[in-house]
Amino acid sequence: MKKKLAIIGANYLQKPLVEKAVEMGIETHLFAWKDGAVAAPYADFFYPISVLDRESILTICKEVGVDGITSVGSDTVMPTVNYVASEMGLIGNSLESTLFSINKYEMRKRLSVNEIRCPKFKVFYETDYVNDGALSYPLIVKPVDRGGSIGVTKVDDFEGINEALIKAIGKSFTGHAIVEEFIEGREFSVEMISKGGHHQFIIVTEKVTTGFPHFVEIAHHQPAQITPKEEEKIVDVVKKSVDVLGLENGATHSEVILSNSGDVWIVEIAGRMGGCFIGSHMVPYSTGFDYLKAVIDISLGNYELNKIGKRLKRHSGVYYVIPPPGRIDQIEDRSTGFCEIRHVEILKSVGDIVSETTDGPDNRSAIMVYVGNKKVDLNPKEVVQFSMSDINCVAQ
């Protein structure tokens, strides 16, 4: 008899997960709103229910008798995933650990109490910053509960901090912002898989951003250009942090800063694999490890640790195409002319408006994944060409 798997979320990030489960001969039950549910046609059963409606999803999962529940690439759905898992006795993470992994304030408190290095911080519920001397400039202002650089601003002095708070609080699901001291250094993410509290390291990813003031992600590369000693130091801190947060089962995506002085600082840790094709595409391309299959096997209780085996030691990466502000008049995919490109996902359509880029995923118009024997430098706007008309001529 086929195993039955519930998958929460149906956007382009979940599509590879659904396809992998189908390939494995698993019966898929997919939950999400219809709008943007590009994965729906690939699932055996689709339920047009909000990913936040955990009681309705629980009721259906009980009726169906699912054997596991999972998701990838999104923090928003993890409370539902782990609530249903908890109520049905399925494999997942505790609700307490889920809170630690989706709320940066709660995460910072937990890490600090356990003496794991993270930036000094304060939480704000109002947009009126009070400078009590506890934090030193420059500062990073961000929502407590969003990822992908959404609502993030670096502030060098008091002049811009209230505006940054307004932005961060406005982007927060709960209306809270966290203000923390800025750490100078290189930023990386760490991909791991865990079972029963035992953690297996996969790879370190190097992050590229626009830098000051919003640090919008524009590319990721594997493997990161670090020494074996630096990798060991990063992985050791991440494993301790994952333990402290109580993330015992499934994928984790940890973002860290390796400071100019060589210290490892935890930025945030998510209880799911990296989004935007980091986990679903880059990891298998660069290492040969089937990360999606591992996530599914964990949820169904089939996974055994130490299955990564010999790594391929190839290079892979993603580039985000972010066109200039305007209205999209034409889209031309030229990726077939680049032998390194393995996948292109076009996220915008003709007629869509692209505004000034101040947030993470908002203006990503396409994502491309490459594979090579070395790090590949591409101009993403040459691979996918967006012809734009002047935004000043467009009624907003």
Per DSSP, the total helix count is 10
Uncertain regions spanning at least 5 consecutive residues: none
Q: Using DSSP, what is the number of strands?
A: 19
Write down the secondary-structure element order.
EHEEHEHHHEEEHEEEEHEEHHEEEEEHE
CA distance, first residue to last residue: 54 Å
CATH class of the largest domain: Alpha Beta
CATH superfamily of the largest domain: ATP-grasp fold, B domain
Which whole number gives the mean pLDDT?
92
Our estimate of the beta-strand percent is 25-35%
**Broad shape:** globular
The strand line-up of the biggest sheet is 13-12-9-10-11-14-18-16
Kindly state the percentage of residues in helix. 25-40%
The CATH topology of the largest domain corresponds to D-amino Acid Aminotransferase, Chain A, domain 1
Describe this structure in words.
This protein has 396 residues and is α+β, with helices and mostly antiparallel strands. It folds into four domains: 4-90, Rossmann fold, CATH 3.40.50.20; 120-181, Dna Ligase, domain 1; 184-313, 2-Layer Sandwich (D-amino Acid Aminotransferase, Chain A, domain 1), CATH 3.30.470; 323-363 and 377-393, no CATH class. The chain has helices at residues 15-23, 54-64, 78-88, 95-102, 104-113, 161-171, 228-245, 278-287, 291-300, 380-383; strands spanning 4-8, 27-32, 45-48, 68-70, 121-124, 139-143, 153-155, 177-181, 185-195, 198-209, 217-222, 250-259, 264-270, 315-321, 326-333, 341-346, 353-354, 366-372, 384-389. It has an eight-stranded antiparallel β-sheet with strand order 13-12-9-10-11-14-18-16. The protein has a four-stranded parallel β-sheet with strand order 3-2-1-4, with helices on both faces. The protein has a four-stranded antiparallel β-sheet with strand order 5-8-6-7. β9 (185-195) and β10 form a beta hairpin. α3 packs antiparallel against α4 (95-102). The relative contact order is 0.12.
